Amino acid sequence: MNRLDNKVALITGGARGQGAAEAEMFVSAGAQVVITDIDRDLGSEVAEGLGETCLFLSQDVASEDDWQCVVEEIVARFGQIDSLVNNAGIFRVQELEQTSAKDWNQMLAINQTGVFFGMKAVAPHMKKAGKGSIINLSSIAGLGGAKAFAYAATKWAVRGMTKSAALELAPFGVRVNSVHPGLIETQMMDAFGVPREEIVARVPYGRLGDVDEIAKLVLFLASDDSSYCTGHEFIADGAVKA
Length: 242
Description:
The structure is a single chain. The chain is an alpha/beta fold. It is built from 7 helices and 7 strands. The relative contact order is 0.15. The model has no long low-confidence stretch (mean pLDDT 97).
């Protein structure tokens, strides 16, 4: 028996990088997976490559209407939604004085408000079912400081929202946890604007993390193996400090 047999999972930002790795791993574990993204072409390509148990839906996570439409379609098609992985996010290396109001608002809309909309949209369905797992992708920047002011602010917010939602939803059998990756080999690393070896030099473990290493942690939290885990931070950072 696979770890996610008979489960339906929604993964945002599933067209590339971390989200695509999570989708592939969830499909392999037996789940019916729905990935969403603003990139329709790439999202459709990823879903087609993963086969009939993966569906792509176009979504802007900063839109509450999009959230309602996506969740309603999933429930209509499959009758349930067991896991939500709030993976979609953006990253910019901008210090306090470099951050414009426009950049700040866009970062909050995607990284923070999008997570809020997602939890709000799935909560009624999970409460009714008496079960569910919400996994919010934060960062080590949500545990300490970072020279990415707005990004760090949103990731701290995700951490706090996770804990509050966990308290509210625990009586209904719904778990909410946050995952805090360190420096992972994705396109996001290009935002630092320096060679990879300079980034690796910051990691005591001696290398960048792999997307599959984070996906395995997310899979654990979506599965019944983590049935008594809620309201906590799960860290995979190679001992690096934000």
